[in-house]
Specification:
The protein has 197 residues and is mainly alpha-helical. It has 9 helices and no strands.
Length: 197
């Protein structure tokens, strides 16, 4: 028998809690058994509310993608304009992405698309993810990136930020030097690269 109050959203919320508690591999290691244990029910009881693990993973990815987009948009909206145009917005977005990843590494992993980018059943997640891409593209337009290179610039910024964040979450920065300073160095380098004629 299903626990009283258990519904689809409650199952997704429980899955998000499982992902949060498991750290950077939380999304990759998400199972129905872990969610059922958290809910205090048997795994078959979950099927009354969710169609299976792939559907649950898409729902977790959707929530994570939306949360990341909210974080980026809020950071950009509250950034003070600076010189060169776009610099403060890029710094704010980069800091927000890193902060989100450090606070919710499993959700950050879920937002990155490895499991849903080409999944024909994940159209809603793919559309939601476009918000983050659009927010970064709008920042890069402030740098006067040529339209024919906008996608190149978005991919380059994403690759640089994601690479740094993924290494940090994986414990890849073992030297005693200040990682925050290294992150600022990276973002400053991105700003310079986007403002060099």
């Amino acid at each position: 028998m299903a626990r009283a109050g258990l519904n689809r959203q409650a199952v997704v919320d429980l899955a998000l809690a499982v992902v949060d508690d498991a750290g950077p591999r939380g999304f990759a290691d998400l199972t129905l058994a872990a969610v059922a244990a958290r809910a205090g029910v048997a795994v078959p009881s979950l099927y009354k509310h969710i169609g299976g693990l792939p559907e649950l993973r898409r729902a977790v990815a959707l929530a994570s993608v939306r949360e990341l987009a909210d974080v980026i948009e809020e950071a950009v909206a509250t950034a003070s304009p600076g010189t060169p145009a776009g610099a403060m917005e890029l710094r704010a977005a980069a800091t927000a992405i890193r902060s989100f990843a450090r606070r919710s590494p499993g959700r950050y992993d879920a937002s990155q698309g490895s499991s849903w980018a080409r999944d024909p059943d994940a159209v809603e997640v793919q559309h939601a993810a476009a918000r983050s891409v659009t927010a970064v593209a709008e920042i890069l337009r402030l740098f006067d990136v040529a339209p024919e290179h906008l996608i190149d610039a978005v991919r380059s910024v994403r690759a640089a930020l994601h690479g740094f964040v993924a290494l940090e979450l994986d414990g890849g920065f073992g030297l005693p030097d200040d990682v925050d300073q290294s992150f600022r160095f990276l973002v400053d380098a991105l700003v310079r690269s986007l403002t060099t004629p």
